[in-house]
Amino acid sequence: MVSQIRFLMCAPDHYNVDYVINPWMEGNIHKSSRDHAVEQWNKLYNNIKNHAIVDLVTPEKGWPDMVFSANAGLVLGKNVVVSRFLHKERQGEEPYFQQWFEQNGYNVYSLPKDLPFEGAGDALLDREGRWLWAGYGFRSELDSHPYLAKWLDIEVISLRLTDERFYHLDTCFCPLSNGYLLYYPGAFDSYSNRVIEMRVAPEKRIPIAEADAVNFACNAVNVDSIVIMNKASESLKSRLAEVGFQVIETPLTEFLKAGGAAKCLTLRVTEPIAEEVHANVSVESRIIRMEGHLLDAGLINRALDLIVEMGGSFQVLKFNLGEQRQSTSAAEVRVSAPSHEVMEEIISQLIDLGAVDLPQDQRDSKLEPVVQAGVAPDDFYVSTIYPTEIRVNGEWLNVQNQRMDGAIAISQTANGIVAKCKLLRDLEIGDRVVVDVLGIRTIRKAESREQRNSQEFSFMSSGVSSERRVELVVEQVAWELRKIKDSGGKVVVTAGPVVIHTGGGEHLSRLIREGYVQGLLGGNAIAVHDMEQNILGTSLGVDMKRGVVVRGGHRHHLKVINTVRRFGSIAKAVEAGVVKSGVMYECVKNNIPFSLAGSIRDDGPLPDTQMNLILAQQEYSQIIQGAEMILMLSSMLHSIGVGNMTPAGVKMVCVDINPAVVTKLSDRGSIESVGVVTDVGLFLSLLIQQLDKLTSPYVARVA
Ligand code: ARG
Fold it and tell me: Which of 133, 556, 651, 664 has the fewest CB atoms below 10 angstroms from its CB?
């Protein structure tokens, strides 16, 4: 039976693997046998001819991939969008295919130059004609999709390919009759997989395993209930049989060497139009502007990488390169995303890099009221550590209390409109909260190469440094501490009990005593073990001098807690002379504010430990207010908590023996944070030595 379905094919007269433009071609240059290829192609041709009509386009010498007629263009009814090949190796095929379409009476649409689109290789019609699935990521550009929707008057669903072996949509995705879909989920990003799952009911989806995928099982020609492909596993064949499809295998191994198989070798030129469908595309684009040391500081690369990693695409519209070392560059970039949802995610990340949405210059932020106390409207903008401005009534307004993971709330006060970062729980009915990503900009310091290189912290800006430069870091931290102390600035320390266990207690005590620390944050444990050590000479029952476990020592810390509880507070225990030295002693004696945040595992707790975590968070944020530097010493929990409250610009030094903790904290994308992977006791002892070197001449003179 021959239905009215027609295909266009191109005989392999000039077929060969002459270059490498996909991973399959690698290692296969001139390794394909023409005779063998001709034989395989003829079998496919005859197979298809049993079920449909096949037209032929004349093969052209010098264009070996022209056999893959799927890439000629995309046909729907009488219209065709001809391909614009990404690689110059195939661009020469374009006029021949175009000529064939013209001679056969199609309306030909051509995309703008430099907008790659590789035809039916990357665009597959739902077999019921409901919509068009269009791929992007390797060969076709996302920005071609709106043209397809407009010219072919159909809904386009964009899918992002992420595995370079499956560089064309038709290598991993095959819509079948009756709404079935044969596909390899591993070839798509998770957003696209979600989109597929939303459109195709579970009973209609036939996901295949990698073993079938690499045999190009998805690269199949479907005519009614027949599915023609290179090769299929027994399980795939029976799965397809269950739902009424008959698989015809026809080996195409010679073409696999060029990265193609059955479907690639054909183009369906009779694609029926479903009456009721119309143009629709969820692809969005926006223009953003960036300014600064875009190249020097690597900002432009980061922005472009981020767009692509998050599933979008871009076109650089303008780039004014600052020519002098000091001068800044400016860029305008068109960002495209497959949907509004993805666009919002991309833009909010770009805002962090200092980008401004161009038309935003004329747009206010979008505000929505809080209707339930402690709950933000959906789509609220999540704040970051960077100084932020929002546009209200045509004016840019500074956001106060900058911190990450809050919402930006506007309220009317006697002094006018005020914008503040607020925690969700602090939102009040009547606040208006910034939603979406319009009218928001963050201010990134524009550092030049010189500034970055001369900054004390810049050498550490590469993030985490392990032993290699611990000493160097210590030198710089010491210098910084000294500077802040001399200028009357503020340094806050967060510390975990490991500081005490590793023998760092005496060093931290000295730092406090000598005026290098203006606030201490921790939990119940640091205080308990510090006082245990100073009262009983053990830390968690281990004798700190001899390093051995003391009999009954595990009870020591409870004894200490009990004693302090008897006095009512750490300060009172110090006054009473029970605690005579140590970290907590120095805090009390030197009037250094501290906050101990409680947790579920706390013994006691000490009377000072704040077991109400909301209050503890408030105490913490009060203490870090105005800090220039935060030393985070081996306390993952408290350090991360502090990191979340701290705006960009505050220097953070995170010391932990566990690289994961350090990475997490120094990964804030701000150059002021540095991680040191080392033993904290060792770090503190080096720091003290270094400070002694810095201070001794001064001390000597006084004496
Ligand atoms: N060597 C060709 C290329 O890389 C193979 C094209 C396969 N065609 C397809 N529709 N998947 O362009």
Answer: 664
Question: CA 479, 484, 486: angle at the middle one, nearest 5?
Answer: 95
Domain final residue, candidates 359, 390, 417 = 359
Same domain, 578 and 684: yes
Give the Å distance between the CA of 259 and the centre of ligand 1: 6
Pocket of ligand 1 (CB under 6 A): 21-22, 65, 68, 70-71, 90, 121, 168, 170-171, 258-260, 264
CATH of the domain at 397: 2.40.420.10
Number of independent structural domains in the chain: 4
Which residues, 6 or more positions from 189, have their beta carbon under 8 angstroms from its beta carbon? Answer: 160, 162, 311
**163 domain-assigned:** yes
Residue ranges making up the domain that contains 21: 6-281
199 and 305 assigned to the same domain: no
Non-local (6+) Cβ contacts of 179 within 8 A are 126, 127, 128, 200, 201, 204
Same-domain status, 343 and 377: no
431 with 580, same domain: the answer is no
435 and 543 belong to one structural domain: no
Asked if 127 contacts 103 with a C-beta cutoff of 8 angstroms, the reply is no
Please indicate whether residue 340 is annotated as part of the active site. Answer: no
Per residue in 92-140, pLDDT tens? 999 999 999 999 999 999 999 999 999 999 999 999 899 999 999 999 9
Identify the active-site residue in 10, 172, 264, 654: 264
Quote the ligand 1 centre to 20 CA distance (angstroms): 11
The answer to whether 82 and 97 have CB atoms below 8 angstroms apart is yes
Taking the C-alpha atoms of residue 599 and residue 453, their distance in angstroms, rounded to an integer, is 41
Q: Which of 326, 359, 392 is the last residue of a domain?
A: 359
CATH of the domain at 318: 3.30.70.2690
Distance (Å, whole) CA 508 – CA 590: 13
Respond yes or no: is residue 264 known to be catalytic.
yes
- Closest ligand 1 atom to Cα of 85: 12
Q: Which of 51, 145, 168, 507 is catalytic?
A: 168
Please tell me the distance between residue 65's alpha carbon and the centre of ligand 1 in angstroms.
Answer: 7
pLDDT, tens only, 512-566: 999 999 999 999 999 999 999 998 877 777 777 777 777 777 788 899 999 999 9
Rounded to two decimals, the pTM is: 0.76
